[in-house]
Amino acid sequence: MNTQEIIDAENSTEMQVYSKRGIALVRGKGAKVWDSEGKEYIDCVAGVAVSALGHAHPAIVNAIKSQAEKIITVSEVFHSEPRAQLYKELAAISPLGDCRVFLCNSGTEAVEGAIKLSRVATKRTGLVAAMNCFHGRTCGAVSLTWNKKYREPFFPLLPNVSHVRYNDAESLRKAVTEETGAVFLEAIQGEGGVRPANPEYLKEAREICDDKGALLVIDEIQTGIGRTGKMFACQHYGIEPDIVCLAKGLGGGVPIGALMAKQEFCAFKASDHGSTFGGNPLASAVAVATLQTIRKENVVEKAAKTGEHFMKRLNELNSKKTFSEVRGKGLLIGLELRVEVKDHIKKLQENGLLMQIAGPTVLRAIPPLIIDEKLVDSVVAKIAEVVE
Ligand SMILES: Cc1ncc(COP(=O)(O)O)c(C=O)c1O
Question: What CATH class has 71-296?
Answer without folding.
Answer: alpha beta
